Amino acid sequence: DVDVDVDVDVDVNVDNNGDSRHPSRRRSRRNASSHQEATSTSATATATATSTSTTAKRAKTKKDTVVEIMGQESQKHEQIQVQVHDQHEQQQQQEKILATDVDGDVGADADVDADADVDVDAKDVSNGVNSSSNNNHNEQDTAGLFCMFDTQEEEDVYEDVRYDYPSSLRKGAADASNSTTAIDTTTSSTTTSVTIRHHNAYPNSTGLAVWRGAEIMARFLCNAQQTLDSNSTTISNACTTNTSSNNDIRVAAVRNKRVLEVGAGAGLPSIVAHKILGAAKVLVTDGDFDALNNLKHNVDRNRLHCDAADASTTGTSTSTSSNNSIVCSQLIWGHQPHIDAILAKHGKQDVVLMADCVYMVPSLKPLWETIDKLLVGNSKIDDHDTHDDNDNDDGIVVYVQTAASAVPWERFKSTAVDEHGFETLCCVVSNGELRKYKEEDGSDSDDDDDNDGDNSGRPSGAAKHKEEFERGIYVFRRRRRR
């Protein structure tokens, strides 16, 4: 037996809990714990930074998107504004005319001037005619700015139509006048021509065309003047339904009278009254600017002894002779500023002409109200009557209807007679008489025979039509109210 005595010196550290651990192992665990805490803190910080960065990126992206959308919307809005502005300028450019009022002032664009009158030199400003602005009016007369026709039509859609009338009527007017300059009697021709420009793309459909009723009206006025000049006691064109002496068509003679045509369109009857029949003053009116433009052209072309250069310079539409003048003006039925301007400038009228210009019942009231105020014999406005020759003349209205209309004849007649105090002379020209004038005036319109049917031997107005209107010529009269 060998006894080995081994002394092992082990340094054991006992902690407070009685747990004995190796010092190096304890340090290792403490270091590991510190490392885990540091790693956790770093990871948390990294996650927080990453989250913050992501949020910032999302916010920036959202902001950029909003800015981009707002930019696109702003750009679209600007484009729309530009388009609207361009369209507005284009519309204004199309509607621009050179408008001269009754005092000679020049209005701007297509606006009605301060006194609501447009005595038209209806030339498009876009053609190079400069007009100075009239700033006296603050609002546009929307009623006067309606434009029924396309102003961009080609020039070749217009054509000239020549009408020939007996020169004896013109010579008769010269013999009846004290003025030797109003009418030229040196011509040896047996006929006198009137040339009318009209829109051949709209035959019998707009104010730019020569309507059949206008042709018939012109012939009727010539017939009335011929009858008066011949001192005939035979009433050849009296209405068969009325045997009164009031049927004498001589009451429609216009020589030395003041004549107003409403809804004149191309203006044939008014020009015939001026150039052929020797009317003292002729006022030709329409409500549409394009119609007025063409009307002004026709008036200037057929003006008696008018210096074209002077007319183009002054922009007026009156003849150089005060005894035989013609003027164009805008007149919208029932529009009081237009009526007042005409009364102030031209006074009341002796004869009112209207041909194929009544299509709808709602137009009857403003039409007859306008006629009532502008025709002689209305005691309510006698202050505007400046007629010196015969202060007791009757006011005469000559109405021609040949085109289809939605206005029944009885409704038209009752408005004139019952509401405005006119009496119906009912002078209706027969189709046979119209054919005679058709040969004399040289027109090429043959379509009136299509409406004759079996009534060629009777007054054209005696035949009822499906629309309840009647074709024919009717003369209304009212005496002055004492």
From TrEMBL:
The segment annotated Disordered runs over 1-94, 437-469
Q: Which InterPro entries match?
A: Methyltransf_16, SAM-dependent_MTases_sf
Compositionally biased tracts (Basic residues): 23-32
The record's section on Gene3D superfamilies has: Vaccinia Virus protein VP39 (3.40.50.150)
Q: What name goes with this protein?
A: Calmodulin-lysine N-methyltransferase
List all Low complexity biased stretches.
Answer: 33-56
Tell me which PANTHER family the record gives.
HEPATOCELLULAR CARCINOMA-ASSOCIATED ANTIGEN (PTHR14614), PROTEIN-LYSINE METHYLTRANSFERASE C42C1.13 (PTHR14614:SF132)
**SUPFAM superfamilies for the chain:** S-adenosyl-L-methionine-dependent methyltransferases
Q: Which organism is it from?
A: Pseudo-nitzschia australis
Compositional bias (Acidic residues) = 1-12, 441-453
- List compositional bias (Basic and acidic residues) regions by residue number: 74-89
